[in-house]
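Example record

One chain of 558 residues, shown exactly as stored in the release files.
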Amino acid sequence: MNDDSSQHHSPYAGRWVARVHGKVVAQGGTPDEALRASQHSRHKERPEIVFMPASFNLPPLVEKIIDALPAGQEIYLVGGAVRDLLTSRIPPDLDFAVPSNGISLARKIANALHADFVPLDAERDTGRVVVTQEDGSRIFLDFATYRGANLEEDLRARDFTINAIAYNLHDETIIDPLEGGNDLRQKIIRACSPTSLSDDPVRILRAIRQAAAFGFKIEKNTRELLKQSAGQLGRVSPERLRDEIFKILKGPKPDASMRALEMLGVLQHIMPELTAMKGMEQSEPHVYDVWTHTLAALDYLDQVISALRVGYEAEKTNDMFTGLLTLRLGRYREQIADHFAMQLNVDRSLRSLLFFAALYHDVSKPETKTIEESGRIRFFDHDVKGADVAAARARSFNLSNDEIERLQVVIKNHMRIHFFADRVIKESKTPSRRAIYRFFRDSGEGGVDLVLFGLADLRATRAHSLTIETWNAYLDVARILLENYWERPQEIIAPPRLLDGNELMKELDIQPGPVVGQLLEAIRENQATGKIENREQALAFARDELQNPKFPSSAQNP
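Predicted structure tokens for this chain:
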């Protein structure tokens, strides 16, 4: 057979083609389109119209769904799943389109797969099947009735042409009325219609996210539609906005995506507090304004986490700073992977939450700006106030309390790494046992986030002006903190409790109250510094503290 028709290497995979004497002369998303296209160049010849099978392998789960379908059920795999399969990606979720009874079919499939069922949208007759994997992850299978009179109307009502492709589960044919396959091959994101974005403005965020995720370009007319529709984002629920933003932050090139949101005039409609950072000048050692620095921090954070992931080939890096990073901290790859595998919310990753914190870490610099007589620009308490601003936005997005708390911890404490490194550079003093204990007492598991972000924040601050000496000082601090956190937790981070509050009240004959907690915390801190090693020393220390005229203020000293 001619190379043009090879299933695995054909540029026409998943398309209808017109062939004359075995040679492809035209193509289309449907048989009629292929025939009409061929008539322009070969109008005197009668072509053979054939379908070129899509060169992808369906996930095993799809085979189970096919087996569970009622006899004669018309059904199509649609949207992002088809796009991903055509580009050799594994789709995270699967969407199906059916002529009618989407909720009813979803319930039947859920029963057959012993999975959970959710009636997702009664108005659009859409049901969801939630399949929980062995590792606890979930796959969503959505079954929706056509949005329109038939499948083609449904596809034309979708967001972008690359997502408006359907796959017939029964005869394995591709239906592509908007030439989405061509746009996939040309790496273009194009709106399905002039009203695609105004019909559902959250698609604005989706366009930018998918452009970054796939390395595609947004077609010129579609970019104009993005700008024109940005003002309608207020119609979108906070939860849908949040989900798209966190997907952007979880994906590749979050800095480029955020820059695009700002340049297209979108940011002011979803997170307006961020826009004041643009053009906000900073003194040395900063080389960028606050907004450019923030975008650089997102980029460097991505680089830091990537360089410390399991399987990263450190010897292939051509960046000296990244090479030193992997040399000094590479031994903690497994622990870092385990850290980011933890969840504060089942639907959002800890990694994306850290990027959200990075996006907001300097949000209050504009409102805290002061200029000293020397001309130096300062931003006192921008970390504390920024934590409050980020928390307010997080609450508006309906993040969980655990997520909001972690967000505040990271932003409120993000300057501490810089203080530690500054002492190393100026006084050759590394963090003391007391300082390490207090750092993790205040940040908990968020301390790991702070270490990683601190390195990214430094690179975004100094960029090309960063010296090896400064970088090594920060790596010293990072290694000391992580080493104590993961290798000496009971010695410094969380010393074993020598006595509880009841024992303390009984031994010292004191009443319940704040003083009990203050004494217990003072004991633990002195355990961390090595000054208290047993119960007797703890009691002796507590008795002395009660006699100290400065107590309890001394026990509360941060």
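Notes: The longest strand covers residues 138-145.
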